[in-house]
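Pinned message: reference record for LacI family transcriptional regulator
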Amino acid sequence: MKALTQRSGSMDVTIYEVAKRAGVSIATVSRALRGTGPVAAKTREKVLKAVEELNFTPSRLGVSLAEGRHAANGVVFPDLAGPYYTEVLLGYEEVASELGRSVVILSTKGRTRVNDLIKDLAGRVDGLLVFGHAAPDPLIAELVRLGVRLVVISRDPLPGADTLRSENTASARALAEHLAGHGYERFAFLGAPLTSGDDVDERWRGVRSVLGGAIEAVATREYTVECGFDAARALLKDRRPEAIVCSDDEVALGALLAAEELGLDVPGDVAVTGWDDIMAARHARPALTTVRQPMRELGARAARALDELITGVRDTPRHLILTTELVVRASCGPHPQEVRT
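Predicted structure (tokens):
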């Protein structure tokens, strides 16, 4: 069973402590407080006395976790815009539907009181999928302590929670080595600001481990076509690199548009690469060299992992890394040793 912490003065009081003080189970405490089931008068009196002594105020999260009464999963995304998030969510929803679970989605972009919103969602579902850093570390730690079943995508392993991500560093090194094989010497990485431990940071560290001081990080504000266009246009006007390594395909598509506006040939004047292998990458002109990650599989695996935690198939966290693959196309220039797809 799971517990919710309530703040009383400077003390944290959990539903566990109420149950222990009253000498009953958590479920009995929940029934006594909600009036949702038979509880002997003497038992109810002991529960209410414990609640008063501990100054405990039950919340929807605590009661819901104690009862385990939902058939829904919560998904917390930083943003729902763009093909990457769409693919991951499609994979997740497909499996959740097969398992008979509905999906409740929370996008944190532009929201205030995000921690409160996430905790409120946790009280309405059986478990949470959290994407990247949509929830800060202290909140993840609190949710784990409260017993919320958690799966986190695209983030370093966290104590008490399942984590699932695609491999980044080795594929980033392979991409950098491929570009170096073309003879390029000046590089830029579009994708800052970089958040420690997230996917883009791993990609940056991977390419930098090969290219060293020959590559600089350039801010894009967000990972969108528009932000990629703005960052690439400013960069190409000021100090044109020979190759631009983009944090994802959307940023790379923006870079292709910026080069076109400035009358630059890709890859003749500047090479451009992406990451993800969204559908638009293969249909861009020139077709985009990128790293393919299994976006839909990522969502599907996350849904199955969360279901295992909810149903009690396992209760120990697991950390999975899915394989990625370098896909060489025309945007990085001719390279006879590689096969294009």
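Pinned by admin. Summary line: The domain at 168-293 is CATH 3.40.50.2300 (Rossmann fold).
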